[in-house]
Structures are given as structure tokens and as C-alpha cells.
Amino acid sequence: MVIHYSGVTLCINRFSNLWTWNSNIRHLVNQGHAQNALVLFRQMKQSGVTPNNSTFPFVLKACAKHSHRRNSQIIYARVLKSCFQSNIFVQTAMVDMYAKCGHLDDAHNVFVEMPVRDIASWNAMLLGFAQSGFLDRLSCLLRHMRLSGIRPDTVTVLLLIDAVLCVKSLTFLGAVHSFGIRIGVHMDVSVAYSKLMK
């Protein structure tokens, strides 16, 4: 079967393996065709191919990009029925999906239940708070992250700058810049500063 999605041609047949389906779903998501990736995921299930821990992060990313609550709930239910609900990549994708869809309590619930968290997990949750302007929750989580022994990275500092832009706080921008220097992430905050001054 040849499938055409907004200029993207996919060749899939009934003998296609999981790797082929996952590659095509990932390709659609990365090319900005989130809705088409979700359609392809449904077709994959209808063809009898069972998703794995590589499938769900991209499908959840498609849900996040599409910001569709119903799709998010359906995919989340599928994850819970699978044996991958405890997989760190799947859980991080769920945190990211809920945060980007504006469901921070759901994102935080998944985050808190994670038995293991890596820097990507922490950054996904921090980004949700940053983009929603919840500086108190963001600061609290950042402290908890550092107490847990997770070292912030460049992405962490960038999402903190995103929070600054969201709440338009010069004081917070100075604190973020100092924090970045303390942890060894040196970056020019002049772009953020110029956006704040507009």
C-alpha cells in the first residue's frame, strides 16, 4: 500500500514489520504531520501490528503537537494496557504530551509516579511549568531536581529563559543567567533581554 500525506509518500504493505511502521510514524511526526502520524498509528493497529516502546514516544509526541485531549486519553489508555507504561522514554513522552496539552496536573502525576527520571524527564516537567508561567512550581521542582542529584543542562537553562519570557521578569532573567553560570552553562541572554524590553 502506498500512502500519501501532504507530500510525504509512505510504502507500507501487509508484510511491513514494526520497524517500518515506527520509522514512518517517526518521520511524519518529525516532518510536522502529527495528525497523519496518528492516522498511521491507527492503521498500524488495524493491520495487527503491536506497538512497542519505540512506537509510543512518537505517537505521544504527535498527540502533544496536535494538542488533542481525546487522542491523548486513547493513547494513554493503550500505554497503560501495554507492558511499556514503566519505560522511561514512554513516561517522559507522556509527561511532555500532557504538559504541552496544558494538563499540568496529569503531567505531574505521571512524573511523580516515575520510578526513574533522567534529565529529559525533569526538563519535560520543568518546560510545562515554564510555558504556563508557574514560577513557584518551576523553582520548587528545580530545587528538587538538584537535590535528587540530577545536574541541569543547557536545555534546562533555555527553558528557564522561556519561563522568563512568559512572565516578563527582568529579575528572574538575572537569576537564570547567574544560575547558568554557576552550573557551567554560559549563554548570551541578550536576546531574551531585548524581547523583555519590547
Automatic annotation (TrEMBL):
PPR-type repeats, residues: 17-51, 118-152
InterPro entries xref list: PPR_At4g14850-like_plant, PPR_rpt, TPR-like_helical_dom_sf
Repeat listed as a keyword: yes
GO MF, one example: RNA binding
BP terms from Gene Ontology: RNA modification
UniProt keyword terms in alphabetical order: Repeat
Top-rank taxon: Eukaryota
Protein name in the entry: Pentatricopeptide repeat-containing protein
Organism: Glycine max (Soybean)
